[in-house]
């Protein structure tokens, strides 16, 4: 499966910022990407944060593993945690 990768940076309370990628099926709307990111942030205890192009931008396309493809087919997205996500 070919996916779109959205590079995302969100400020945290402790002067750090979270860095994660949102992976979605090629052609997914940006509105849905932001919705998926908001769901993830709520799970991480960062409610009421609205993603915009200031925090979340299309980065590139790539082919993903079978495991990631399955999660995207099941949930609509996959989050790849990079920095300060815990």
Automatic annotation (TrEMBL):
- The organism's place on the tree of life at top rank: Bacteria
Q: Which Gene3D superfamilies match?
A: NE1680-like (3.10.510.10)
Q: Which Pfam family would be a valid example here?
A: DUF2024
Q: What is this protein called?
A: DUF2024 domain-containing protein
